[in-house]
UniProtKB/TrEMBL annotation:
The lineage of its organism: Eukaryota, Metazoa, Ecdysozoa, Arthropoda, Chelicerata. It is found in: Mitochondrion intermembrane space; Mitochondrion membrane. This is Serine protease HTRA2, mitochondrial. GO terms for cellular component: mitochondrial intermembrane space; mitochondrial membrane. Residues 386-419 form the PDZ domain. Belongs to the peptidase S1C family.
Length: 450
């Protein structure tokens, strides 16, 4: 065929051209067969997903054993036409397809289809490799997208947190029962535990349960009522410990984790942020002239004495009290460090003197605190002053008299109560105490024998 007709050939005809071109491979001369095979493979190698006009022309030219002079009108590149001329020029000159010997026709029926199929498969493989994506198998699982920073901190510190139970005699049956409970944490591997003073300061029998389930009888060693800190000693060695750190670098908004055993539920974890680094005791109506860390991490009954840790696993505070949901307070670790240092220099001095007690934990209601509580709870009583009872020890004088958490003490002995200091003074004068409280919006009069 004329080379000008090459431009009308489509890619669909490529396979048929390969079959036809394969017939030339049957030429008797090995040298000619070699040249033809090289030309065909060169044409196929340059063929992409859609064969170009030049590639089709090269294949079709294999059918033309007698090529005329190349016309100047041909659109094929010069290199392509040169290849066509070289392919069809043998040592004996051009030959016509009509003059092929009968042996060539017999060879065509034997080899043409096989060779054409081979070349078509090669073309198909070439086309597939140009567009098929490469997929690499991975043997390692993808990294987790979960944020486990709180779980990591808890895993590192939980073994040092302990559950503390205070045992006493039932006032009627005289049986030994748990009258209170709290939390603590190991600060020395030889069995020294730090907790709140109001948890163990009454000197009753203390039972300590470790994270691994072992139980020990504890002995109260040092008590500081001003900072509400105490130490308990158990007969154990090689215990995991927690490190206390100074809070001078602590900032509002930092994540913290409160650990302890609220409501006797061992190893309970709550998380929150630091609301205030230095909440003064005057703002809370407490007379001990201390600063507290305010957090929104939930601290409930039984959490007292447990650690408040940062995400590095260091203790920044000791949980001490909760006012309402979202408002809890912890003693800064700075006070605990000073207390431990002083306690190591002297023995316990707080157990010899008899002291009157009610068995409650209380909080002075300041105007700002009253406003915040009323915003959180519309049912909160409309008072201007008083003392909020937020914990009552089981079996204590206050518990036996009927005082309950949430009650507001407004009068003692007929005198208005402005702060918790008024209650401490009344304990030294009045016995028993005539207390007026607001219980769920209703005023009640109670008689308490300290």
């Amino acid at each position: 065929p004329d080379l000008s007709s090459c431009t009308t050939l489509s890619a669909v005809k490529t396979g048929w051209l390969c079959v036809s071109a394969a017939a030339v491979l049957c030429h008797k001369r090995r040298r000619t067969r070699t040249k033809v095979l090289q030309a065909v493979l060169r044409c196929v190698h340059e063929t992409t997903a859609m064969p170009s006009t030049a590639s089709v022309c090269r294949l079709s030219s294999l059918l033309c054993r007698r090529l005329p002079a190349v016309s100047s009108r041909t659109t094929a590149p010069a290199s392509t036409l040169l290849s066509c001329k070289l392919v069809h020029s043998g040592p004996s000159g051009p030959r016509s397809l009509q003059t092929q010997s009968s042996s060539s026709h017999r060879c065509l029926s034997r080899y043409a289809i096989g060779a054409g199929a081979l070349l078509s498969a090669y073309l198909f493989w070439r086309q597939r490799t140009t567009w098929m994506p490469t997929i690499f198998a991975s043997t390692t699982p993808p990294p987790s997208t979960r944020f486990n920073f709180i779980a990591d901190a808890v895993e590192k510190t939980a073994p040092a947190v302990v559950y503390i139970e205070i045992l006493g005699r039932h006032p009627f049956t005289q049986q030994q029962i748990a009258v209170s409970n709290g939390s603590g944490f190991v600060v020395r591997s030889d069995g020294l535990i730090l907790t709140n003073a109001h948890v163990v300061a009454d000197g009753r029998l203390v039972t300590v349960k470790l994270h691994d389930g072992r139980q020990f009888t504890g002995k109260v060693e040092a008590v500081d009522r001003r900072s509400d800190l105490a130490t308990v000693r158990i007969a154990a060695k090689g215990l995991p410990t927690l490190a206390l750190t100074h809070t001078d670098q602590l900032r509002p908004g930092e994540w913290v984790v409160a650990m302890g055993s609220p409501l006797a539920l061992n190893n309970t974890i709550t998380a929150g942020v630091v609301s205030s680094v230095h909440r003064s005791s005057k703002e809370l109506g407490i007379h001990n002239e201390m600063d507290y860390i305010q957090t929104d991490a939930a601290i409930n009954f039984g959490n007292s004495g447990g650690p408040l840790i940062n995400l590095d696993g260091n203790v920044i505070g000791i949980n001490t009290m909760k006012v309402t949901a979202g408002i809890s307070f912890a003693i800064p670790a700075d006070y605990a460090l000073n207390f431990l240092q002083e306690a190591s220099k002297k023995s316990q001095e707080d157990t010899s003197a008899d002291r009157w007690y009610l068995g409650i934990t209380m909080l002075t209601l300041t105007p700002s605190l009253i406003m915040e509580l009323q915003q959180r709870d519309p049912m909160f009583p409309h008072v201007t002053s008083g003392v909020l009872v937020w914990k009552v020890m089981l079996g204590s004088p206050a518990n036996l008299a009927g005082l309950q958490p949430g009650d507001i003490i407004v009068k003692i002995g007929g005198q208005d109560v402005k702060s918790s200091q008024d209650i401490y003074k009344a304990l030294e004068v009045w016995k028993p105490l005539d207390i007026e409280v607001i219980h769920r919006g209703t005023k009640k009069n109670l008689k308490v024998q300290p």
